[in-house]
Amino acid sequence: MGFLNFIIFAVLSELILVTGNQPPVFIDDMNNLLIQENTPVGTIVYTLKGSDPENSTVHYGIVGTDRLQVDSLTGLVKLIAPLDREVNDTLRFNVTLEDEVGNFSGSNSVLNNNLVQVFVSVIIVDVNDNPPVFKNAPYEVLVPEDTPVGNTIFSHILVEDEDLTGETLEVKCVDNLQTLKSCSKFSIETWNSSQQYYKGGVVLKEPLDYNDKQFYQFILIAYDGLHNTTTSFEVKVGDIQNTPPIFQGSLTGIIQEDDPIGTLVMTVQARDGDRGLPRKIQYELLTNPLDYFLLDPVTGELRTARPLDREALKEATGVISLKILAREIIDGFPGNDSLTTSIATASVTIKDVNDVAPQFNEREYKVSIPENIAHGTTLPNLNMTVTDPDVGNNSAFSLRLNDVSGAFAVEPSHATGSTSVSIRVVNGTLDYENPNNRKYIVLVIAEETDTNPKLSSTATVTVEITDANDNPPQFEQERLTATVSETASPGSVVATFTATDRDSGKFGTDGIVYELIGDGAEKFHVNPKTGVITVADCENPGSPDCLDFETRPVYYLPYKATDDEGKGQSTTIPLKITLTDSNDNIPLFTSDTYRAVIDEGATKFEPPLQVLARDVDKTSQIFYSIIEGNTHSLFNIDAHTGEITVANPDGLDMSGISSDFVHLTVQASDGKFTSNSSVNITVLDVNNNSPIFERESYVATIKEDTPVGTSVESVSATDADTGINAVLVYKIEKGAFEDFTIDNKSGVISVASKLDYDLRNTYTLKVIAVDGGTPALTGTTVVEITVVNSNDKIPFFSPPTQRAEVTEDATIGTIIHRLVAKDLDVSTPDALNYAISEPITAVDKNGKEVIGDAPFKDFFSVDRETGEVLVAKPLLRDVAAVVRLTVSVTDITAPTPQHGSGTLVITIIDVNDFAPEFPPPWTRSKPKYMLDFLEEQPIGSLLGNFAATDKDSNIARYEINPPSDYFTVENITGTVKTSSRIDYEKTPQLNFTLIAYDSGVPQFSSSADFIVNIINVNDKDPIFNQTEYFATIPENSPKNTFVTKVHATDLDAGKFGEVTYSLIGEHSNDFVIDSKNGEIKIANIGVLDREARQEIIIQVLATDGGPAETHRSVVATVHIKILDVNDNPPAFTQHHYTAKI
């Protein structure tokens, strides 16, 4: 940079010698400007400022960057391309300033313009704009189902974030829509977390069960406070032998009672609860009531063992329950623990043969019912049931009656097995008064419907009829009416109403009792025997508590007559009692006091003034009158409407009346009762005098530094009106500019805000006085105020933030800047003194704040009188690259010292003379790395971090040149990762070159050659040429007989591709296999018994040549069918047989 400055100085000197024209000068050049990387394209980020000594037009330019653009005339710098701190954290370029020289005076020669270039650095500030990234994702893990809760099942959750800012990384679990509640099974544990790195694992929270669920899937979300990234996580559950057999299908059977011995009832089926390598099942009967059945232990067939007898069973349902035991076969022997056995209950239903008729629970039944029993009523206390112990169609029967009267019906008409029976009254009139109808005898018949022959049985029912009160009282009319005065005295007869009853005795007319019911019945009294209705007792007839026409003019009450002395049947009819009105209420005004306002001289009230009284008596008429307060008969009242009007048609005349208020008393009368109310009338004065100020104008003088709130002048005005019309309010109508205010009551004008002589030194205030009349009247005066100047301005820096540059090797005493400050109250620079004060801060060459009491605070000093800034101590750019000085300026001529402050930003410019260096074993004489790397690593796998260092500048960026198909480098960190999967079989060795660039000027770079040897890994499974194999052998085959041959291949190279064979499973010891060629032969001829088993299944395990901890294997199933040969003689099922004839 020092060399560049020297060149510019030489060129400018040459221009001055030749042309006499001075070059333009930058005032603000944007060096060390901070810009956030997410600044939108199009944003104005800075304004370049420059000037020319000859005041000619200057033009701005930017050279060396494609991210910024400057307006050549205004100097506005605009962002034209996106920024990315992770790609480049510093922009370094030149800004140019060019003047317009034009033609030299007195000469025809054309002169070149002066062009000044300044190198600047713009620091890109990091923001959180990159999401976190999962490493080696997606994740999957195989977990045995018996893994204890609390175990860590996965410990390699890795997340990285390129940003330096943002919150500490967090990882959370979210359920997958296909496998809900997976996150309740597992928890995410955080082991190490920062803003750029996260490491954690997965811990089992709840037990696993292979039979319940074979895999779980959930989503991992990494969050940095703003962005998030997701990846999938799959947990596969490994099966182990820990589940007992599971019964399948139906365990129910149905047989006929007369089915022969050996009939198949059902086939019991069960399977091993563990699905990985299921075992065979053996069956056994644990319970066998009456020894009716036999169970085949291999096939599970359940058959009858002896003749069946349904009637011998304890349960009438014909259902027999059997306990069945299922055992897993382990190495040829049945298991006997809870993990290898299961018990289930089977049920067998024996169907019946019809041999029993329906049976009644009694032979005879007796009941009594009243003569007035309702049709459809069930005979009480009958308690009849019919039962047929047969089942199915054999137990179906019908019910019917043999009833000559036809008065009864039986329910239900059909039933099966057993039913309760009811008999209902359905027809005929039961009349106790007819001796022939006092007793009925009915025959009930139950007969089978679906059998041949149809078996049946009968029962008799005797029904006796009893007498009842079956006639209600009857009135001659359907509705009753009566009338009575609201003031009738207690005991006054209202009316008499009676009824008759066709029954005799207490059930007839002699036993009738009368009563009034309903709301209001208590206002009347009824003689219960005679039916005479009278007015009930009441202390104040005509009041709301008694009969009151105004409260309730009509009573609608139910009138009830009941025979059997009030306990029998009843009849209720409506009774309407109408009250006649009487004048018994006082008229009442709607308001105790009425109020009105009227102007003096008015001829009527606006709105009209009307009093109103109400009388609840419908027949009363109200009359109004003024009985007090109508002095000089100023008002009239309409006797019928109550409207009050001005008596004088020329208007209201208040002459001779001292008060503005008139109080009237008005009366309302209905001819019998009266009531009074007050009317208050306010008469308003007329506003006809304007306020008048004591002086037409006022003059005042005040100092510039007068405190806020100080009184300046007082104005006063008077109004000839009285009352509210004479109450004045003062206002400043204009001219105060919010610097003065006036007390609206006293008229005192005072300072409202700090005065500034330089901004305004004279004020002309227009002040008005407003009275309280309607409409309001005003008066006006003018107040002239003159402001006297005082030294009250604080000195300030122009601009507030000033910038300077100095090379790192500048000598002590070098002048690098002259501070520029102004004070509007002084005219000579001698009045200003300069100083450097705290805080003094700095930024290092990495753009980070320097913390602590570093020596950078003593790098510079300032001349107190001239403001010149000088180098005070040797500069150390490794300590601070940019120093921010707080500078102050003091006006020493003010009565009290006045201080101003600003900021001086000084950039210490580096001199670049060292190229970047990669870490060992790289050297400049041998710039290469030789590395080994496993094949088939996930995309993004780390090859290594090769961060270079530079003795005098930062590393600007890294690149692989030419680009590699398999590796990428992170531009900022120098970390090299894979960009695609690498296959050893295709590319056993890879080469690329990594280049590091520093940020110095001029920029230097270094390169490193990489030789990456790919290490072969065992990453391919063996593959059988068939998924299953089938073979057949005779059951008498000798040992070492060839059975079949299996074959598998492995695509891995070298020893990893070599395949060996072995047998696993239940019968792995009964056969042998050649480990190289896959030939299977017989080892144990004892298992070849077709009568014991028809097929043997073995599993062949194919394993590749990888190490024990990484070898891969697959399993194929071999089905060996055993062919029958004639090797067993016939055998009797019993040693002895016995028969009787």
TrEMBL record:
Annotated signal peptide: 1-20
Alphabetical keyword list: Calcium, Cell adhesion, Cell membrane, Membrane, Repeat, Signal, Transmembrane, Transmembrane helix
Bilayer disposition of the protein: Single-pass type I membrane protein
Keyword Flavoprotein applies: no
PROSITE patterns, sorted: CADHERIN_1, CADHERIN_2
Highest taxon of the lineage: Eukaryota
A biological process from GO: epithelium development
Gene Ontology CC terms, in alphabetical order: adherens junction; catenin complex
Compartments it resides in: Cell membrane
Pfam families: Cadherin
Main subcellular location: membrane
Residue intervals of the Cadherin domain: 35-134, 135-247, 247-360, 361-475, 476-589, 590-693, 694-797, 798-918, 925-1024, 1025-1132
Gene Ontology MF terms in the entry: beta-catenin binding; cadherin binding; calcium ion binding
Record PANTHER family: CADHERIN-23, PROTOCADHERIN-15 ISOFORM X1
Function description: Cadherins are calcium-dependent cell adhesion proteins. They preferentially interact with themselves in a homophilic manner in connecting cells.
UniProt name for this protein: Cadherin domain-containing protein
Organism from which the protein derives: Clastoptera arizonana
